[in-house]
Amino acid sequence: MSQALVQHLAALRVEMADGSIAPYCGGVFTIFGHGNVAGIGEALYAQRDHAQNPLPTFRAHNEQGMAHAAIAYGKAQFRQRIMAVSTSIGPGATNLVTAAAVAHVNRLPVLLLPGDTFATRAPDPVLQQIESFSQGDLSANDCFRPVVRYFDRITRPEQILTALPRAIQVMTDPASCGPVCLALPQDVQAEAFDCPVSFLQPALIRFRRPPADAGELARAAEVLKTAKRPLIVAGGGVLYSQASNELRAFAEAHGVPVVESHGGKSSLAWDHPLNLGAIGVDGMNVANAMAREADLVLAVGTRLQDFTTGSHALFAKAKLLCLNVQPFDAGKWNATSLVADAKLGLGQLSAAAAGWSADAGWTDKARAEAARGNAIVTELTTAVPKGVLPYDAEVIGAVRDSLNDAGGDSGLDDIVVCAAGTLPAELHKLWRSRAPGTYHMEYGYSCMGYEIAGGLGAKMGAPHREVIVMVGDGSYMMLNAEIATSVMLGLKLIVVVLDNRGYGCIERLQGKSGVPSFNNMLDDCVPEGGQPSEIDFAMHARAMGAHAVHVADVAELKTAMVAARAARKTQVIVIDTTHTRTTDGGCWWEVAIPEVSQRSEVQEAHERYVTAKQDQRL
């Protein structure tokens, strides 16, 4: 059974968006254990150097980390290709559950192949087996059911003939795309069966692009043509459909300004005159101000997460028109739905609205505000005050512009990777991306620890680009082992660690909620008899094989970035920062405040909360 699975994966080919043909599965990450080493392991060994269909195997240091890398690979490949992940039956399998949730929320494909207990049950309970007192067929792998798009447990080898194609169908469907899990009992992995030759010669994968329904398209065009102050919210679906050209053409043809969610950032070049930049809770003031004035929002390929919509209060009075390949997303919040592929749908909607455009004054204002916003970004990221610790904006500016300092090609954008903490808010506003896919943010699940492993996957998916991981000290401490993997695989990363000595983002949220600061910043967490935390991140990174330095200030950071670009192996640059300064911008975000408290600060925060909720879309 394992041989059939691995040979099918290795033989799969996909027609890419540019018409080229590529292997669908870029490789298999695995950490072997007793649940996969003898079954899947034997099949992977035989396939790694196969003459026609090689399938590389990559060893990692943490199961969650290797799954993050596999997910990031799929994201960097615009969901056109995948990686698979194989683990043993116990903690190796459950370590994947968080990563599965990351892929599920972000609608990203990954094939999870955890080992499972014996289907025969003859040796039960085996090492690492979860025993249920009430359900005989339950195993730890049932944890995957809520966080994957498709789950199956292969209890007979013949079942792989239907289960694997179904899993691949889910991952290649633009509407249902997400993680899939095939739980593999270790005895079934090793059982023989008569496998049809056709299974080992699978058909070429071609992605479908569903066009809009004629009736929906007509209704959407009529709604659009009533707008005088329209605004486009570009989401991740624009990138996965590779519809950046169509987005630009639509905006220019109809004079409609564009704002970008985290998922959609880099859909439109940062310096396009109609790109207002980041929208939402961590958005630019210019973008949010235009959103409040808009009379219609065309949401393209976005699931309308609360950070994008300001918890549905930012543009609650505007009409909502949702163009999305997934009906679940297209119909949110009583929107006028247009279910279609973003690339086709934008072209069809533009044609159906031929002759219509936004009010000229609105378009002119958008261009002026976009220019003003860009000037603000330049000022924030290049003016570095003396005598104080830098904050994220000043670090971002130095990192972002270091390609020019190194004399590089400014047309070949870096990929910046991040996931959690303060950095996503600052990068959303301040990072500048020219090419689609160069802003790699995991902000659907906001999973601390994704960053370094995600950077590894992004590098595997786009080896020709410089991959820069920006990570806070809190996230670094959560999951950093794939620094060693990047060194081992010869896949260079530049990791910039911003050390503000704790969970600065949540400490600020804590304060805004009226709660005194505690249990977030390291210096506040030392009990009587304890010792202050002293973590040398540069020394730690060097211990894993990277070259690492701790710089004193932004000037030294700029010098270190030039050297890091010239280097050939993974570089880690650590800089001390403050969490007390942040970039202005954003809008309200719903965080529930206690109705009952003896503290006046909490009572006042609750009053503000109740007032803000009155602006939410109903």
UniProtKB/TrEMBL annotation:
Keywords: Thiamine pyrophosphate. GO terms for molecular function: acetolactate synthase activity; flavin adenine dinucleotide binding; hydrolase activity, acting on acid carbon-carbon bonds, in ketonic substances; magnesium ion binding; thiamine pyrophosphate binding. PROSITE patterns: TPP_ENZYMES (PS00187). One of its GO terms (cellular component) is acetolactate synthase complex. InterPro entries: DHS-like_NAD/FAD-binding_dom, Myo_inos_IolD, THDP-binding, Thiamin_PyroP_enz_cen_dom, Thiamin_PyroP_enz_TPP-bd_dom, TPP-bd_CS, TPP_enz, TPP_enzyme_TPP-bd. Residues 54-128 form the Thiamine pyrophosphate enzyme N-terminal TPP-binding domain. Residues 217-349 form the Thiamine pyrophosphate enzyme central domain. Residues 420-574 form the Thiamine pyrophosphate enzyme TPP-binding domain. GO terms for biological process: inositol catabolic process; isoleucine biosynthetic process; L-valine biosynthetic process. Belongs to the TPP enzyme family. NCBIfam families: myo_inos_iolD. This is Thiamine pyrophosphate protein central region.
